Amino acid sequence: MDQPFLLLDFDGLVCDTERAALLAWQDLYDRLGVPLTAGVRAGMLGNSAGARVALADLASRLGRPVEDAEWTWQRERRAVRCAAAPARPGAERLLRTAEGAAAIVSSSPAAWVEDHLRRLGLRHHLAFLVTGDDTDRHKPAPDLYLLALARAGVAAGDALAVEDSPTGLRAARAAGLRCVAVPWEPAGAADLAGADAVLADLSELDPQRYRHDEE
User: Fold this and answer.
1) Which SUPFAM superfamilies match (predicted)?
2) How many CB atoms lie within 10 A of CB 92?
């Protein structure tokens, strides 16, 4: 292959929804007068169960469950913030130059990913999507990536995963994939030391460097 088939995470990598969603949680923590700790932030990033992590943390520290009205308010804040989330730097160029040899592999629901890709004008660059609707187990399990490899019809050595979180990195490695990490915040780079490379943004990624015959 001239370049590997690209298997990209979505939230926080292609679209800046990870930052937007975290800011919505920060809004709720501030509203309730509770500091959002680095440990809880780390537990939420790249985790399809991130909301449960935050809700359990708040319940423990408030001494009561989060009320329905508070939870609704947070989701409304998330919707507003995510609706304005931009594509990450370099995402459009990377997908355009992949010429169809790229797919999204995300634990998020299909409708969420589809809606944001179409809003950003990026959907037509992708061969297919593999989302949390497609498998029972999500990242860090390898199931989503294994399904993506099967749909692409390529071996792991002819593909390259691109992730922004330790959870995604573990999933890619468990599927036998090479993985380049592009954290959406610089502080996250330290947790991605096991990646083949850690880049500042997608504009730095040259897929040609990861051709199977150049390993």
Assistant:
1) HAD-like
2) 17
The number of folded domains in the chain is: 2
Query: What DSSP state is assigned to residue 88?
Result: P
**Domain edge (last residue) among 59, 83, 107:** 83
Overall size of the chain counted in residues: 215
| Nearest Cα to Cα of residue 65 among 50, 78, 54 | 54
Contact 86, 16 (CB under 8 A): yes
| pTM over 0.70, yes/no | yes
Instruction: For residues 194 and 165, give the distance between their C-alpha atoms in angstroms, rounded to a whole number.
Output: 11
| Distance separating alpha carbons of residues 76 and 24, to the nearest angstrom | 9
Q: What is the pLDDT of residues 178-213, one digit of tens each?
A: 999 999 876 566 678 889 999 999 999 999 998 775
